[in-house]
Specification:
By secondary structure, this protein is mainly beta. Helix content is 3%, strand content 44%. The chain is built from one helix and eight strands, in the order ββαββββββ. An eight-stranded antiparallel beta sheet has the order 1-2-5-4-3-6-7-8, with no helix packed on it. The longest helix is centred in the first third of the chain and has 4 residues. The chain is globular. The N and C termini lie far apart (47 Å).
Length: 140
């Protein structure tokens, strides 16, 4: 499977209208996009299948999962995806869309924080990944 990172600029998702939660044995992810991606995929999200790609690399090797999205088209399209929870190990996943078979991969400014138990919550982190890290604390 090709890597998720591409030369395409990551597209934002709407923070308030997008979310992730557990539904039975699945993780349901709902993403609302601010536009229909016509710049990247020509006819937008109306005529082709769309897959959500989740990818992470924690040093033990890459993990990638993909799931077919149900798209509600419009000026602000809504994508709804269900992924089996047991296919996602704990960690932070980058999100991207694949539009059409062999089509463009569009990275998203969102990440899924997956936990290891049904008791702990999972989270959809909307927005770009922070580029800075805090400096190491001073020794006591």
């Amino acid at each position: 499977m090709p890597p998720i990172a591409t030369a395409v600029t990551a597209r934002p998702v709407e923070a308030v209208a997008s979310y992730a939660r557990r539904v039975g044995d699945d993780v349901k992810i709902v993403l609302t996009l601010p536009d229909d991606l016509r710049d990247e995929v020509g006819d937008g999200l109306t005529r082709r299948r769309v897959w959500l790609r989740l990818g992470r690399n924690d040093g033990t090797g890459p993990q990638r999962v993909r799931a077919l999205a149900q798209v509600t088209p419009g000026a602000r399209p809504r994508l709804e995806v269900r992924v089996p929870a047991d296919s996602l190990t704990p960690g932070t996943y980058k999100l991207a869309l694949r539009v059409g078979k062999g089509g463009a991969i569009v990275p998203l400014e969102a990440r899924l924080l997956m936990t290891d138990t049904d008791v702990q919550p999972l989270a959809l982190l909307a927005g770009p990944r922070p580029l800075t890290r805090l400096p190491e604390p001073e020794p006591r």
